[in-house]
């Protein structure tokens, strides 16, 4: 399933760790605190648990939104938006 992860984490160290966990899960960084990618249900649950351990529930916000492939295809992208093909696994790897 396609997953959006958005967060507002006050502590710099916890925020950096959250970004690292998202990247390690295979998500693509869309913006500074916004990640998108395809995960299995088990991978999503694992990431959710990892993020729960990092945040302060009194001050931080984390949103994990599942999205179907058809909904992603209907997404409107303006300006310098992300590469939809990379997020939907149409492109498996980038070569530089």
Walk me through the structure.
The protein has helices at 12-24, 41-54, 69-73, 84-87; strands at 2-8, 28-31, 34-38, 61-67. It has 96 residues and is of the alpha+beta class. The chain has a single domain (2-91), classed as Alpha-Beta Plaits (2-Layer Sandwich), CATH 3.30.70.240. Strands 2-3-1-4 form a four-stranded antiparallel beta sheet. A hairpin with a 2-residue loop joins strand 2 and strand 3 (34-38). Helix 1 runs antiparallel to helix 2. InterPro entries: CRISPR_associated_Cas2, Virulence_VapD/CRISPR_Cas2.
Topology:
Layout: E1 2-8, H1 12-24, E2 28-31, E3 34-38, H2 41-54, E4 61-67, H3 69-73, H4 84-87
Antiparallel strand pairs: 1-3, 1-4, 2-3
Helix pairs in contact: 1-2
- What would you say the CATH architecture is? 2-Layer Sandwich
- Going across the biggest sheet, name each strand in turn: 2-3-1-4
CATH class term: Alpha Beta
Q: Total strand count, please?
A: 4
Residue-averaged pLDDT: 88
Helix/strand/pairing class, anyone?
Answer: alpha+beta
- Total helices: the number is 4
Radius of gyration: 14 Å
How would you sum up the global shape?
globular
End-to-end gap: 28 Å
Stretches with pLDDT under 50, minimum 5 residues: none
User: Which fold name fills CATH's third level, the topology?
Assistant: Alpha-Beta Plaits
Count structural domains: 1
Q: Biggest β-sheet: count, sense, barrel?
A: 4 strands, antiparallel
**Helical percent range?**
25-40%
Please write the string of helix (H) and strand (E) elements.
EHEEHEHH
List keywords for this structure.
96 residues, alpha+beta, Alpha-Beta Plaits, four-stranded antiparallel sheet, 4 helices, 38% helix, magnesium
